[in-house]
Specification:
28 helices; 638 residues; 5 strands; three-stranded parallel beta sheet; two-stranded antiparallel ribbon
């Protein structure tokens, strides 16, 4: 088993991310760096263990050390899968098949070389399963208590282990009904769970020290409960009614196939057919999967459920456990030849071949570069109000965790549900910047895009010059740098902000940047919604309609924002406006007389702009002027 763990770890470590990754990685790395409290549920075990691990690997950068921490945890989980199969009296080939099928599944591999909690969670799931199966075979209380302890300890890393603990309890009682009449044994297991939960004491104790990062301020019992139970996150759930369960279940079932090279579920079915005869402990994996699905269906957001499947890693692990049984049953009916056993290992090696480049993050710098561009261009003493996990967390790590630009006052908007207090500043002198257009309602104040940021200025005043921003992010054009959904969104936002900054002064250049944004992030409903808003205010209603339609295709439900708009509503509004303007323009052009210019030419657009301006249709007139500018540029480039 040790050689297997080392080999899998080597694969993960080869592609380990050397810099802070997108999404939660920056938040978790910051918490480890400053011994703080990351987003709910606080992940105290990850913070403590990550801090110890990174100090043991003090000669490495913190992001790389934490990436290797994930690699070690994921490889350890695969090794335990091998051990589970061997202890269930399966041969080496089914055991190896199970471990490798899980090791190279896209979701586990996607978490095994970056700074997140899911690989460590997989290790606890595998370890608790190992001891649960040992208890089933030998009925030793120590094994059941060990599995219970691992559920509690693992829940201090990720709350799924609480769900697994419930599955373990049902499995134990179903396996040995007499347990309900043995309160001392039940108390021993409950006590083991409570001991395992001890790392949660870190949250209130550390909060009292006022660390640089403390989500939810869990010093009081009420705040502590809200952090642990992720109270602020339930409002994002996708589920609105019973019909949604079918949608979620279809996606879940499809992921079980794609995550296991399409062989996992068929082998699980074969395992269940022979389970009673072979006395395989099928109930625990089935309960663990059911709990995994139910908790995500009730809690998960659209992105959590359909865009990435890292939350289903425990289910994929359980599929691998049962696939080992199915593999063993199949091998018993096949010729006992070496090439047959080699063929059995083809599916996991196919996953290895497909994922080797896809999950090589060794050259990844996108998130770090985005944050560094912002920090290095800010004037000394700037106040930076940052929001949106994908941008905020990278800034948090570099500024708070790595100590870059300590003169910059980084204001963490929305961390722990917090809202900005009253802000007092002079926009003429104070260097105040925001990462996203704020929902401020301040008369006489407007937001000037200045590169990757907005700066408040007095209405009617000249906008300040843009901060220097390169044309590309580091690695953006490198085909060997993988782009997951969040990376695509960050690159898309980079070009979106460049486009918004250029919008007033150089529309053709702005159009190119906005096109790059759409191409870089083709599945981002918020981006396309915002593109629709930009095109609408510029009178480019055909472009706005296309953008809103794409946003509605991606997400027919509410956009994730405070106002919760629906792109479908904007589609109807813009379509009606296009119809109205087409009729108006037709009437105006017919009444103007004269020789019409060629349709789509700069002259034609300018003529229409003048006619519309005369009717007070300023937005539509601007749209034709912008189209005229584009037509002239195309003519010059020929």
């Amino acid at each position: 088993m040790a050689a297997l763990v080392v080999a899998i770890f080597a694969v993960y470590a080869w592609g380990a991310c050397r810099t802070v990754y997108v999404g939660d990685s920056g938040d978790l790395a910051t918490a480890v760096a400053v011994l703080g409290i990351p987003h709910p549920s606080g992940y105290p075990l990850y913070v403590i263990a990550g801090w110890l691990w990174s100090h043991a690997l003090f000669f490495l950068s913190l992001p790389l050390a934490l990436s290797l921490f994930s690699a070690a945890a994921a490889a350890g989980a695969c090794g335990l899968l091998y051990q589970i199969a061997r202890e269930e009296a399966l041969g080496k080939t089914p055991a190896l098949f199970s471990a490798l099928l899980f090791a190279f599944g896209p979701s586990l591999w996607g978490e095994a070389n970056i700074q997140r909690v899911y690989a460590l969670n997989a290790l606890f799931v595998a370890a608790a399963t190992l001891f649960a199966f040992r208890w089933r075979r030998g009925r030793r209380l120590a094994d059941l208590a060990a599995a219970s302890f691992l559920c509690g300890l693992g829940a201090a890393n990720h709350l799924y282990m609480a769900v697994f603990g419930l599955a373990l309890g049902v499995f134990a009682v179903a396996t040995e009904p007499a347990l309900v009449r043995r309160p001392l044994r039940l108390l021993a297991c409950a006590g083991a769970v409570l001991i395992g939960l001890a790392p949660y004491l870190y949250l209130p104790l550390r909060a009292r020290a006022n660390p640089l990062l403390a989500w939810g301020d869990p010093r009081s019992a009420g705040n502590l409960a809200r952090v642990i139970l992720r109270e602020d996150f339930w409002g994002r759930r996708f589920l609105e009614g019973p019909a949604d369960l079918g949608i979620i279940l279809r996606d879940y079932a499809r992921s079980l196939l794609t995550e296991t090279a399409w062989v996992g579920p068929p082998l699980v079915v074969l395992a269940l057919v022979f389970a009673r005869r072979r006395k395989w402990p099928w109930l625990l994996p089935v309960l663990a999967m059911a709990g995994n699905f139910a908790s995500m269906a009730l809690h998960g957001s659209r992105s959590d459920l359909f865009i990435w499947h890292r939350y289903y890693v425990p289910s994929y692990l359980m599929v691998a456990v049962m696939a080992a049984w199915g593999c063993a049953a199949a091998l018993e009916r096949l010729p006992r030849r070496v090439f047959v056993r080699a063929i059995v290992l083809l599916p996991p090696f196919a996953l290895l071949a497909a994922g080797f480049g896809r999950f090589d993050r060794s050259r990844y710098r996108v998130a770090e570069d985005y944050a560094q561009i912002i920090l290095r261009t800010l004037p000394p003493g700037s106040h930076l109000i940052a929001a949106d996990d994908n941008i905020l967390f990278g800034l948090m790590y570099l500024n708070l965790g790595a100590g870059e630009r300590p003169d910059v006052d980084l204001i963490l908007e929305g961390v722990g549900g917090a809202r900005l207090g009253s802000l007092a500043f002079n926009p003429d002198h104070d260097p105040v910047f925001v990462t996203h257009y704020p929902n401020w309602k301040v008369p006489g104040l407007e937001m000037a895009p200045v590169g990757l940021l907005f700066r408040p200025v007095r209405a009617g005043r000249a906008w300040p010059p843009s901060l220097p921003v390169p044309e590309r992010l580091a690695g953006e054009d490198d085909p060997h740098v993988p782009r997951d959904y969040l990376t695509q969104n960050l690159i898309g936002n980079f070009h979106y902000m460049r486009g918004v900054t250029l919008e007033r002064g150089d529309w053709p250049a702005a159009r190119r940047e906005l096109t790059l944004a759409a191409e870089a992030s083709p599945d981002n409903d918020v981006l396309f919604y915002n593109l629709g808003l930009i095109f609408s205010r510029d009178g480019l209603y055909a472009d706005a309609l296309a953008a809103f339609r794409r946003s509605a295709e991606i997400n027919p439900r509410e956009i994730a924002s405070l106002s919760k708009p629906r792109a479908a509503d904007r589609v109807r509004e813009v379509a009606a406006e296009i119809d109205r303007l087409e009729k108006l323009e037709e009437r105006l052009v017919a009444g103007a007389g004269g020789v019409p210019a060629p349709a789509g030419s700069a002259e034609d657009h300018r003529r229409r702009a003048a006619l519309l301006a005369g009717q007070g249709e300023t937005a539509a007139a601007r749209g034709h002027l912008l189209l005229a500018e584009e037509a002239e540029q195309r003519g010059r480039s020929r």
